[in-house]
Amino acid sequence: MQNSKASSEEDLDSESKDVTHFDQSLQELRDLRSQLHYAADYCESTFLNAKEKKAVVENTKEYLCRAVVTVVDHLGCVSANLNCLVSETNAFSAAELRINCLKQRLLSCELYANKLSLSRVRWSEIRPRHHSHYLLSSAASKAVGDIEKSNEGLRDSGNLTSTKKVIDEKHIEVDRDQDGNVPLFFYTFGNKPAALAKDEKNSALALPVGDGLSALSKCPNPTFHFQEKRKNGRNRKSAHGSDILALIRRAKRTP
Amino acid sequence: MARAGGITNAVNVGIAVQADWENREFISHISLNVRRLFDFLVQFEATTKSKLASLNEKLDTLERRLELLEVQVGTASANPSLFTS
């Protein structure tokens, strides 16, 4: 940073020196113009008033040569300074580099902002969930009911019994839901309500079912029952063995 | 005497003619150098104009880029919520 500052200060000093040189050369050229005009007037007056005009002409020639040489010299100096100032494009290249750097930074900032917005969209905790659940208005629900009634009228009379069974089962399910719990086989077997009416003791063993998925999750595992049965068998075996041991002890005590 | 005076007159005329020719040659040299100087000035003006035009074009492009960057920075600073996670 210090080196860059020092180099920038040196550049500024050199530029200021060039500018002062250019201004000085331009000012000398302007002064030379007025001097040349004054010298031309002096030569004219001396040539007209002098007796030996040859010497005056020679002096004028010499002065003209020197004046042309000095004018060319000054013009060369001015043009060189101006060319040097115009051809120095280091400042422009530096400014262009800085602008490109700023542009790159802005691009990186835009990329970062886009990345942040994308991550918000992808991993938002409160994401809206759309279910396949639609609510119909009253007029639309009436129209749908009329269509269903007309379809039911077109069905066969043989299907009416099955539909009545299904409707009765649904009524039972609704009543059971209102009470709270529904046996599992209500969802699986159609003729089970009669069995339920007969065996009311087994109704206590029936699982409460809220909906189909919870009933499936809460259904007892048959392998678990099998293991329980095995455990009972082992207990029986152990009880039988204890009885034999007790008989052997009694037999040992009796003699 | 008259012959000698005629010779001297002829010599004087010859010297005057030679001086006149020398003066003419000197003036032609001076005018030629001034013309060269004028040509150099015209050429220098053209090259300087072209260089200044190119510099002006570069400055215009730099100014436009700076304006674009200013607008972009203004829009980015107007929405600071974009950079807050």
UniProtKB/TrEMBL annotation, chain A:
Segments for region (Disordered): 224-255
Parts forming coiled coils: none
InterPro entries: ABI
Similarity comment text for this entry: Belongs to the ABI family.
Function recorded in the entry: Involved in regulation of actin and microtubule organization. Part of a WAVE complex that activates the Arp2/3 complex.
Name the record gives this protein: Protein ABIL5
Protein source organism: Rhamnella rubrinervis
TrEMBL record, chain B:
GO cellular component, one term: SCAR complex
InterPro entries in the cross-refs: BRICK1
UniProt key word Cell cycle: no
Record-level Gene Ontology MF annotations: identical protein binding; protein-containing complex binding
Taxonomic path: Eukaryota, Viridiplantae, Streptophyta, Embryophyta, Tracheophyta
UniProt keyword Transferase present: no
Top-level taxon in the UniProt lineage: Eukaryota
Coiled-coil ranges from the UniProt annotation: 45-79
Protein name: Protein BRICK 1
Location within or outside the cell: Cytoplasm, Cytoskeleton
Keywords assigned: Coiled coil, Cytoplasm, Cytoskeleton
PANTHER family assigned to the protein according to its UniProt record, in alphabetical order: PROTEIN BRICK1 (PTHR33668)
UniProt main location, coarse: cytoplasm
Family: Belongs to the BRK1 family.
GO biological process: actin filament organization; cell motility; regulation of actin polymerization or depolymerization
